[in-house]
Amino acid sequence: MASLGPELLKHTSIINQSSVIAEGTPTRYRLKPTTDSHDESEPYRKMAFGQRDRNKPHKIILMVGETGTGKTTLINVMINYMLGVQREDKVWFEITDDQSDRTSAHTQTSRITVYGFYLQESPVDLTIIDTPGYEDIHLDKEIATGLLSLSDSAEGIHEIDAVCLVVKATQTRLSDKQIYIFDAVQSLFGRDIVENIVLLFTHSRGAIPKNVMTAVEEAKIKCAVNDKNQPVYFLFDNCQSDAADEEDEILEQPWNLSFKGMTGFFKFLDNIKPKTLKMTRDVLLQRKQMEANISNLQSHVQKMELKKNELKQTQEALEQKKEYVKNNKNFEYEAEVVYKEKVDIDPSLASMAMCCSVCEENCHYPGCWWISGLSKCSVMKDNHCTVCPNKCHYKEHFKGAKIYKTKTKIEKRTNEDLNKEYCGKIGDNVSLVKELEEELQELEIKKIKLVIETFDYVETLQMIAINADSVFTLQHIDFLIEEMKEINEPEKVETLKNIKERAGGVLEYMKKCRKSEHQKILP
């Protein structure tokens, strides 16, 4: 290695742990990670730089922002600030991948990336949880998967110091995609973390970003506020790593602006109390239980319709042919029969599910992605399932890449079949009709129970989550409204309609994404 100039001597140790990205002023270096986990079985990628010092202050932040807002550059600004890099040092260190800020869907990862920055030269150990910022209506599930897995991992992330919402200072309004991303993330966290949410405005020239501040307020983004009840924000430029001539002073102002913003941000971190993820875990578990309930309700509604059709066909056969049935043992008719079959899971919806082998129900689907022990699944309580009809013990369940699917087939039935099915009451048409009605009534009672339980989850999430109108709830809002109408609950219908009305823009964005996803899978 060539001898280093005096301005580089103080960074010799860091440079020795780095590779050159590009020569120039400044010379750009990429720090070599101590560990770089690419385990595809994990819902996150982890890159560590150095070893964690338990005697040092440790800050954990979550970065959220649309692709192209400069989130990746901002992460590198943090690293250089922590290393005490000055503009006159003519060096710039990076820890992120080249593709991190690209806008192409082909270069984006659906997994969150966890950067552990633990170098001796830094006065603070820092963990940065970087979320993907691309167009995907399953973003909230991916982040939830990562957060729960991280909290259960060996190093265990159990608290967060700050949730950083990254926005361009030059924007005059937030796009539907940005609002969706922020809403999705805020629907994951408990209300107690609001005062730890801050705005990081990038591409700033130092002026108060009045337009984007107004846009944030109009979008009802919840975040920490100052003593004037204004959102807490910090300003950054994004050209610290741009090459410049030796005498070029143009970049001095953006450099100073970004490092002033970073000084303010780290002062905020020093003064704010970190929040545990306990309430956030409660939110995530409520969501998982609600998800299981909705899946079960959808399956039950389908089963109910098919069963009604089967019973209707049987009833029509009895009414039209009852005299013939009494006197002809060889009487036959066709009926559409409902049955359950194990099928492979659609990988675009989920990878695993937990099902009851006794009830033949999908108790946790889509889902069951963050826990291995069946007894610890979010739908289990006191070792028994809260979802399947018989509330079976967890040992009666299995977890895998298959689910039960309700299907129908045409069967020929005879007078003997009818006698067996209806306990010899074939000669008593009144008794048979009553029995059919009772069976339908039992199905209806279970449906009402499932609908009410699902609404209870909606109300609970409204009470404990930052974003009361959860993006997850919105994905099923029309289905829930129709089911609530059917069981004659007008007040609950109005509550759901209000949620839908408040989330007009987000719903439109979700519909657009679904249409795009559908077009991608068409031949």
UniProtKB/TrEMBL annotation:
<dbReference type="InterPro" id="IPR025662">
    <property type="entry name" value="Sigma_54_int_dom_ATP-bd_1"/>
</dbReference>
<dbReference type="Pfam" id="PF04548">
    <property type="entry name" value="AIG1"/>
</dbReference>
<feature type="coiled-coil region">
    <location>
        <begin position="426"/>
        <end position="453"/>
    </location>
</feature>
<comment type="similarity">
    <text>Belongs to the TRAFAC class TrmE-Era-EngA-EngB-Septin-like GTPase superfamily. AIG1/Toc34/Toc159-like paraseptin GTPase family. IAN subfamily.</text>
</comment>
<keyword id="KW-0547">Nucleotide-binding</keyword>
<dbReference type="GO" id="GO:0005525">
    <property type="term" value="F:GTP binding"/>
</dbReference>
<dbReference type="InterPro" id="IPR027417">
    <property type="entry name" value="P-loop_NTPase"/>
</dbReference>
<keyword id="KW-0175">Coiled coil</keyword>
<feature type="coiled-coil region">
    <location>
        <begin position="287"/>
        <end position="328"/>
    </location>
</feature>
<dbReference type="InterPro" id="IPR006703">
    <property type="entry name" value="G_AIG1"/>
</dbReference>
<protein>
    <recommendedName>
        <fullName>AIG1-type G domain-containing protein</fullName>
    </recommendedName>
</protein>
<feature type="domain" description="AIG1-type G">
    <location>
        <begin position="61"/>
        <end position="246"/>
    </location>
</feature>
